[in-house]
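Q: How would the structure tokens look for this protein?
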Amino acid sequence: MDIIKEIENELIGANELPSFKSGDTIVVSYKIKEGNKERIQQFQGVVLQRRGEATGTFTVRKMSGNVGVERIFPISSPFIDGIKVTKKGHVRRARIFYFRERTGKSARIKEKRSFA
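A: Here is the predicted structure in token form.
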């Protein structure tokens, strides 16, 4: 199994992503091609889950009006221009799917304070 992981790491290369986990609020800058033009679109939301190691994915959820929008991003995607962590959230689970049914005050996540 170690040989497979070594080959994956060589093919994927070092992707400089910040460390984030479920409950964090992030902004994902994503490259979009429209015809022969290319632009960068930002998707800001709460991370619901991270899945996998080098070839894994992460799910981000945001509210657009009164409609919840979720998007799954591959970690090793060449279309990800950058990820910026805006808030560190304090949650007690690795996958916060219960967050989908929450609205109003119950949909808030406590912010993790860092004293540095």
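The mean pLDDT is 89.

The chain has one helix and five strands.

Upvote if useful.
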